[in-house]
Amino acid sequence: DYLFVALQGSNSIDIIDPYESKFITSLENIGLAPQGLVVSQDGKLLLVHNFMSRNIVVFDVATFLKTHNPRSITKKAEIKSVQNEILEAKVLRGKQIFYNARDFRMSRDGYLSCASCHQEGRHDGRVWDFTDRGEGFRNTTSLVGKRGMDQGRVHWTANFDEIQDFENDIRGAFGGKGFLTEEQFAATKDPLGGTKAGLNDDLDALAAYVTSLSKKEVSPFKPASGFSEAALRGLRVFESQSCTSCHAGANFTDSASGKLHDVGSIKRTSGKRRGEQLLGIDTPTLLGLWNSAPYLHDGSAETLMDVLVSENKSQLHGQTQKLSEQEIKDLVQYLKEL
Predict the structure, then answer these.
(1) Pairing verdict, β 272-273 and 276-277
(2) pLDDT at position 133, please?
């Protein structure tokens, strides 16, 4: 008769009557990042797994289910779910902040946090319109494997030079109060200007968590024995087309150089960079392409084949028009196995 709905970012459980489309009540501040819900077989207990509090909270809902009185719901116990925490204290605190939309420093309305688009540090597969912040259509990228600033400036236009610059997004789109004082933010508002690192322990902890995302995800397309024959042929195509001139080094990007490139993907909807004319895009890493569709800065390419063919009519993104169909397929296979 009722739906128990976990609101991960808001740290609450909503109870809804689906037959009447009616909100009944909300169990507030039950812990950080509730993700899992189980009602016991006898219908007496509701167990809630708080991912970031590292515990399970048990509620007695027996009387409520009989009388429909939400005030009868009582908390019975809290059970520790992690005995040996593997994250260091600062990283764990940063991860808790990353998920917590209920923190008014993070979000005004309690439903936006970093995890809203980057669950587990990954991406949501969406394209967002950031015109209001002096940008344009931007495809969400994964943070996993990037180790924070290890690959260079962040965002498609390289407009942040430290993870702490997300204070700007928090104060802007999220509507949060921010983690810095007004004086500190005024002095560091330009994300390519004054340094925010070291000004606030919690903002630094948030950066520490993002930096901790160092493990690269293994492609399921790559055989355990190494690159497939098709991928090895694709590697030769990759090198012959001078793809390494931009997608260079172990990270397959020249982002650390600060260079921006126009590969023919800039459109009217691509907007601006820092409120000024957009002349180029930061080179994205090719690692993890198998799990990062859609592609290009505006998500206009649904597949890697689209990147190389449909969205490359200007031939600014390598001379793929001169490649055979088989060569393009081999190149795609190589990119999928990275």
Answers:
(1) antiparallel
(2) 86
As a whole number of angstroms, the distance between CA 329 and CA 151 comes to 28
Report, as ranges of residue numbers, the positions in the chain whose pLDDT lies below 70: none
pLDDT given for residue 111 in this prediction: 85
- The residues, ordered by sequence, that sit 6+ positions from 67 with a Cβ below 8 Å of its Cβ are none
**Residues 109 and 266 sit within 8 Å (Cβ to Cβ):** no
48 pairs with which residues across the strands? 37, 57
Q: What is the pLDDT of residue 1?
A: 85
Predicted pLDDT at 312: 84
Which of 204, 174, 206, 171 is closest to 185 using CA atoms? 171
End-to-end CA distance of the chain: 48
Residue 321 pLDDT: 83
In angstroms, rounded to a whole number, what is the distance separating the alpha carbons of residues 276 and 235?
37
CB 115 within 8 A of CB 206: no
Kindly state the helix (H) or strand (E) to which residue 258 belongs, with its residue range: none
Confidence (pLDDT) at 77: 97
Q: What angle do CA 265, 270, 275 make, to 5 degrees?
A: 135
Cα 303 to Cα 316: distance, rounded to the nearest angstrom = 18
Sign of CA dihedral 191, 197, 201, 203: positive
**Separation between Cα atoms, residue 162 and residue 190, nearest integer Å:** 11
CB atoms within 10 A of CB 48: 24
Residue 238 makes CB contacts below 8 A (sequence gap 6+) with 244, 331, 334, 335
**pTM of the predicted protein model:** 0.94
Token pair of 277 as six digits: 């004319």
Q: At 27, is the secondary structure helix, strand, or coil?
A: strand
Q: Where are the alpha helices (DSSP H) in 121-177?
A: 166-171
Task: Express each pLDDT in 277-311 by its tens digit.
Answer: 999 999 999 999 999 999 999 999 999 999 999 88
How many residues comprise the chain? 338
Rg, C-alpha atoms of the chain: 23
Tell me which residue of 306, 316, 320, 304 sits closest to 266, measured CA to CA.
316
